[in-house]
Write a structure and sequence with these properties.
Double Stranded RNA Binding Domain, single chain, alpha/beta, 5 helices
């Protein structure tokens, strides 16, 4: 008889425990979104800053300002912001750079090139937000040809602009 009680208790515990993490996850998912810094949502005039980085011209075509030039053109074409000539005229500074972010591949830590877009308040120089976009997710045979690396570069710039669009899009229920 004690075995039967133990088995019954075990089954009850087995049925009750799985929903607990789901309830916890549900509570976190339904938590209200933290507000973005207001400058990100209200900015109209932006200054684009080039923080440089690791652009190796043996890796991709173009000149050392390729990332800056392409990002500038994409933001201008988007039309959401007025691009200004100095930070003093700006509501927000968009600082683009190329960096290297370590990722684990198997047992090794491998540096992966990535674009970093830092959104800065020009009045206080405080970083309000940062976005990263990897140029590649994993090493592969497609990286052998320069034209493929150029295509990957272009795609990553596009994704970075899309990330910025998503970030600055008005959210339902949030007043601007």
């Amino acid at each position: 008889m004690p075995r039967l009680k133990l088995a019954t208790a075990s089954l009850c515990v087995a049925f009750l425990l799985p929903p607990l993490p789901a309830l916890h996850a549900q509570a976190g998912k339904d938590a209200p979104a933290a507000p973005l810094p207001s400058q990100i949502l209200t900015a109209r005039n932006v200054f684009l800053s080039n923080a440089g980085g690791l652009l190796d011209l043996n890796t991709v075509s173009g000149d050392p300002r390729r990332d800056y030039n392409q990002f500038y053109a994409a933001v201008k074409d988007w039309g959401r912001f007025n691009l200004v000539a100095s930070p003093a005229e700006a509501d927000l500074v968009l600082q683009i750079s190329i960096t290297s972010i370590p990722r684990q591949i198997g047992g090794e830590i491998v540096p992966f090139p990535a674009f970093k877009l830092t959104l800065i308040d020009p009045k206080t120089s405080i970083v309000l937000w940062a976005l990263d976009e990897f140029l590649v997710d994993r090493p592969g045979i497609s990286l052998i040809l320069k034209k493929n690396r150029d295509k990957i570069f272009d795609t990553a710039i596009g994704k970075l602009v899309d990330d910025l669009k998503s970030l600055t899009a008005p959210s339902p229920g949030i007043a601007q």
